[in-house]
């Protein structure tokens, strides 16, 4: 029986481990892929305090993982399928049936890319459809790409793609982008990015790989075809919460927590991108992970 099991080793989970272990908790982190979370696919991070120069997401998360391990954190590989509370203890069940027990749990499993759910999307993943410009951008040197979305990630990734692509169409369903001003300015200053507003994708087309998109203007209803070699989709995220009890989730299946990261279930905490109202930033996920670990400590001592 552990004091604390942390599910997920992104910034929230690793920060929770650093704070938990320094508080003296006997804890374990369970991660289904490799530690680091979404950030390891991010080309450059320039808003994490303490680093005057931008650094790669991979480097930032390697440092966080190393710090957690140096303090004694054990990170095990596993896909958590359920967390169940019973008489003051938690059973954490992994795919394959292994069950571990703990007095407290921090859910820090972040979020995954949302799909457009249009014809061709699923079929052409890896053949022109991508959710990661950092990973796949270099395949599109001197080619034409489309980026779908209007938030920070879409703007950032469209700008990143201009290192390779000869042209990037930035397609958004509204009449203006939602991303922060500094990113909007960067996009506006690029002669390789062409804004396509008020427009949705109806289908992703091609014979054996992506060759084009069918678009629809939401104001006029007019349909058009656009030839592209690749399409990068950044239309939001869904919280990874399928393994959590329904009573801690809201209608969007995001975890509801109070200011101290406590859920409705005593002893169960949540931190990072999976929580309702998250701003989805590394520094916030890290801060919430720290808060959750200190709350777990207080809970075990009977202080809360
Ligand atoms: C392309 C891109 C660029 C970004 N750029 C920036 C930036 O410049 N600055 C910034 O502040 N933020 C940025 N973000 C946002 C930032 O990455 C997230 O806010 C942050 O990673 C959230 O951390 P987290 O720990 O909550 O979740 P995540 O990073 O999503 O980590 C969750 C972890 O849980 C694991 N997991 C999921 N389900 C299970 C399960 N069932 N069992 C076990 N493990 C599981 C996952 O594999 C993952 O490792 C960017 C995001 C993207 C996608």
Strands, helices and their partners?
Blueprint: E1 2-7, H1 11-22, E2 27-31, H2 57-70, E3 75-77, E4 80-86, E5 89-94, E6 99-107, E7 111-113, E8 129-130, H3 133-136, E9 144-148, H4 152-161, E10 167-171, H5 181-189, E11 193-196, E12 199-205, E13 212-217, E14 223-227, E15 230-233, E16 237-239, E17 268-270, H6 282-300
Parallel strand pairs: 1-2, 1-6, 2-3, 6-17, 8-15, 9-10, 9-15, 10-11
Antiparallel strand pairs: 4-5, 5-6, 7-16, 12-13, 13-14
Helix pairs in contact: 1-2, 1-6, 4-5
The chain binds flavin-adenine dinucleotide.
Question: What distinguishing features does this structure have?
Answer:
304 residues, FAD/NAD(P)-binding domain, 5-stranded parallel β-sheet, 7-stranded mixed β-sheet, 6 helices, 2 domains, alpha/beta, binds flavin-adenine dinucleotide, 27% strand
